Amino acid sequence: MENIYRPIKAKVENIIQETPNIKTFVLRPEEPMRFAAGQFMQVTYPGIGEAPFTPSSSMYQTETLEFSIMKAGQVTSLLHEQLKVGEYVGLRGPLGKGYEIDKWHGKEVFVVGGGVGLAPLRALLLALFHNINNYKKLYIRFGGRSPQDLSYKEQLKTWEKKDKIDMVVSVDRGDEKWKGKVGIVTTILEGSGIDPKNAVAIVCGPPIMMKFVTLKLVDLGFADNTIYLSMEKNMSCGVGKCFHCNVGPHLACKDGPVFTWDKVKVIPDPF
Ligand SMILES: Cc1cc2nc3c(=O)[nH]c(=O)nc-3n(C[C@H](O)[C@H](O)[C@H](O)COP(=O)(O)OP(=O)(O)OC[C@H]3O[C@@H](n4cnc5c(N)ncnc54)[C@H](O)[C@@H]3O)c2cc1C
User: What is the CATH number of domain 101-230?
Assistant: First the structure.
């Protein structure tokens, strides 16, 4: 019988400092590990602990996986401070459900993110770019606290030039070099020309951002079941046994971590 708790060994091939508090860890698992954009894995730091993260790399890149991890508490701080290239971690997964990208064919896709929320969204965007002709147009709206706090700076520049992409990046506070927009991410959602009747919106970021972006999207005319939200709840087992990650009647680890707003809005204080 398959052991759902068995981690697969993965070697750290590279560590990229994305922002002052986010690092991307490039991992090479000893066995092939496939995932769908939006699914997550439990990353074990031997002797320290385990925490859930969503791969930020393309699901079509199968030999190495990338995880962009923000320093938040015990496990993430030690991953940042102690884990070195050449060492090993464990990977358990893929867990949860991926984004329903096949359901979005022919539609406009509005992707809104902030902070470390750009990690799962990078995996999503790379999957959408892979078959870009399946989608009518892609709108990307990313926010960060400052230019230094934006992950994937070089990639953002190349995405912006792609066909069928309309991208706006904003920061709460600019600096002398910043030429883009200044303002919180909700200020760059209007005026895109998107038709919410033939569109889906995907949101991932800090809880407060998710809340106000969702309210804005509803205001712009997006139907509740077309707004996809990443509910990154405190999680333990990752496989639907411990019930630590309940989102109302649902479990983020099994039924999510992505839920549409119609499922989440009925729960008191969902973010
Ligand atoms: C499905 C899923 C995917 C995720 N993907 C990513 C990712 O790609 N990159 C990334 O940086 N982070 C991601 N996270 C969040 C990440 O799992 C937490 O930051 C991590 O578990 C914190 O572990 P820690 O031991 O460092 O912090 P702890 O010492 O356990 O906690 C530090 C503080 O953070 C709070 N906390 C812990 N976990 C969470 C959580 N999941 N949500 C909100 N607050 C939390 C604790 O209550 C505490 O206040 C994801 C979470 C989930 C559930």
Answer: 3.40.50.80
